[in-house]
From TrEMBL:
This is Nucleoside-binding protein. The keyword Membrane applies. It is found in: Cell membrane. Keywords: Cell membrane, Lipoprotein, Membrane, Signal. CDD domains: PBP1_BmpA_Med_PnrA-like. Residues 31-322 form the ABC transporter substrate-binding protein PnrA-like domain. Residues 1-25 form the signal peptide. It comes from Sedimentitalea nanhaiensis. Belongs to the BMP lipoprotein family. Its main location: membrane. It is a lipid-anchor.
Length: 332
């Protein structure tokens, strides 16, 4: 199921808050452009976004283009979005919540083009956001960590402080507290998603404090954390995709949040005329192709059964996933 939340645009009449729901004429070639504030081969979040763009071309027959490798600074992101919009595509997708501010600015400059932020939190008269709920699979990952930790110390590592990352951290923490309220939680936002020397250092810092399971929300910088954990026999939980096949000696699970589905769904909605501006569409555990916790074969059956039960409780609303965290943070 895909859940959509409508947001009215302040200062505008209701009739202007949503673009007309008209499908593209069959004679027009559908065109989609994407901005990726990172590397399309990072084996993580940015590559998933790029995979979504490839799927848009394959499934929808769309003409596609993209810009990648842009530093996550609002001015640079805005300039890249302007470059994409200048070609007048039907849809511009800004992949990542770091684009929130830039997308609001540039969407206002190009009112006839539809804009979407993946993992975003912004809306406008020609702007919507699509969010794959990383916090739901992260909550389950935290719950699993609470059941499996031997030292009672569990860690979390991320790079930049974007809203989806903060929500993922909060979900993980609250899942941990649900199954093991006495556990010690270590967390850091190191400031960079792609720096392997940095991730090695901060992972080693948490290992020195006895963390035996660490949840990483990184992009191209994940290899440094993998190396540190391999050296010390510490288990890692990945995100975005399943990391166990690549490093079975390190990964105990992966908190899947297949963000490629968000961009693809947005493009489907635009092409078939169901897309609405002024909305945030949320995709969670009730869509297992998008959000799930994938376990390594080493996870015991009793833990698997407990996690299956917790998953169902999240889906049916018995458990409300909190993303709040106001505890201490480590420094890089």
């Amino acid at each position: 199921m895909i859940r959509t939340t409508k947001r009215h645009v302040l200062g505008m009449a209701l009739s202007m808050a949503f673009l007309p729901l008209t499908a593209l004429a069959d004679t027009e070639q559908f065109s989609v452009s994407m901005l990726l504030a990172g590397q399309i081969d990072d084996k993580g979040f940015m590559q998933a976004g790029y995979n979504g763009l490839v799927a848009i071309g394959d499934e929808l027959g769309a003409k596609t283009s993209y810009i990648d490798g842009v530093a996550p600074e609002p001015e640079l992101l805005a300039e890249a979005l302007r470059t994409l919009a200048a070609d007048n595509p039907d849809l511009v997708i800004a992949h990542g919540g770091q684009n929130n501010q830039a997308a609001e600015i540039v969407a206002a400059e190009f009112p006839d083009i539809k804009f979407v932020v993946v993992q975003g939190a912004v809306t406008g008269p020609n702007l919507s956001s699509y969010e794959v709920l990383q916090e739901e699979s992260a909550w389950l990952a935290g719950a699993m960590s609470g059941l499996l930790t031997q030292t009672g110390v569990v860690g979390h590592i991320s790079g930049i402080r974007v809203k989806p990352g903060l929500k993922g951290r909060g979900g993980f923490y609250n899942g941990l507290m649900h199954t093991n309220p006495d556990a010690k939680f270590l967390t850091i936002f190191a400031g960079n998603q792609d720096d392997n020397e940095l991730s090695y250092r901060v992972a080693s810092q948490q290992i020195d404090q006895k963390a035996d399971i660490v949840f990483t929300m990184l992009n191209a910088g994940r290899n440094g954390a993998i190396e540190a954990m391999r050296e010390h026999g510490v288990k890692q939980i990945g995100n975005v995709r399943d990391w166990y096949p690549d490093h079975p000696d390190v990964f105990v699970a992966s908190a899947i949040a297949n963000v490629s589905i968000a961009g693809l769904q947005a493009a489907r909605d635009v092409k078939n005329g169901t897309w609405q501006s002024g909305t945030i569409t949320r995709i969670g555990l009730d869509n297992p192709d998008a959000v799930s916790l994938v376990l390594s074969p080493d996870v015991p059956d009793d833990v698997r059964a407990k996690l299956d039960d917790l998953r169902e409780q999240i889906i049916d609303g018995t458990i409300e996933v909190s993303v709040d965290y106001d505890g201490p943070e480590l420094k890089p």
